[in-house]
Design goal:
Layout (H helix, E strand, L loop, with lengths): L11 E9 L4 E10 L2 E9 L8 E7 L6 E6 L5 E9 L5 E11 L3 E5 L2 E5 L9 E2 L7 E7 L2 E8 L13 E7 L5 E7 L5 E8 L5 E7 L7 E5 L7 E4 L5 E7 L5 E7 L8 E8 L2 E7 L7 E8 L2 E8 L6 E8 L2
Antiparallel strand pairs: 1-25, 2-3, 3-4, 4-5, 6-7, 7-8, 7-9, 9-10, 11-12, 12-13, 13-14, 15-16, 16-17, 17-18, 19-20, 20-21, 21-22, 23-24, 24-25
Length: 322
Amino acid sequence: MTAAWSFAAGPEIVSLEKIWDQGSHNAFTDLIRFQNQWFCTFREADDHVGGDGKIRVLVSRDGSAWQSAALLEEKDIDLRDPKLSVTPDGRLMVVAGGSVYLGTKDLKGRQPRVAFSKDGRTWTKPRKILGNGDWLWRVTWHGGRAYGVSYNTRPQPGAVMADEWNVTLFESKDGVDWRQVTVLNVPGRPNETTLRFTRDGEMLALVRREADDKIAWLGSSLAPYREWAWQPAGYQFGGPNFILLDDGSMVAGGRLYGKERGSNRTAMGTLTRKGYTPLLTLPSSGDSSYPGFVWHDGLLWMSYYSTHEGKTSIYLAKIRLR
């Protein structure tokens, strides 16, 4: 086994490029390598919240020259926070939230969507999964099964969403039909959750929280993933993501919240069982975060969105871990 990354000198940005700004508001990214090509997905809309969200998929052979591969949309539905994964049979899969509003921004209901593609360019029509009120935020495959955590605020007829939130672990054989595994015992309005697996099959979860102290929680569980141990990760996250490197160490990132208005930043750093340590702040400010991570050819590839140049746009950073 190779030695764990120590970050003694700190990570270093090798390159940083704006790869898309053609929508009015471009946000909530994910990144994957599929069929020896790069795919980056995100939401295009008029604003951070609203009923016109569409899912843009970009493709690049070299990670430098990007072009649009697809645009997924559904009438009167705000498609949000797309997340990419590869199914066991070799298809690209995207999950996204599907929100409906009263007026322009009051959330009336929502139900996640899923779509599939053999080449990243031609996609199936987004179809509903789980139930009304669910948001299956990210899917991770392990052992031929898909796992994801949905956060739920059950809708009331004719009203906005309720305030009580819970997070539930689901599994699926095909990404379409899902079975509940367990409700995760996380307080404080838990919501966006990323799952990853260690080499021995242990499941790890990084959960965003929006109440109490708002500190993200890190959980661990062994199969069948019904019993969990939890500890605070030390920081409040927006759009939390993390991956395991070849040596088993973890890299994480998301939005870190500053005390002053407009001081939020997108950052990356190390994640251990004891918590998160931010090590690098990406060029970012304002509406920003939701990174996608891929470890490739000795570099961390990181997509994210930010408003630091005036318009909410999509960026790609290549980072050397020293």
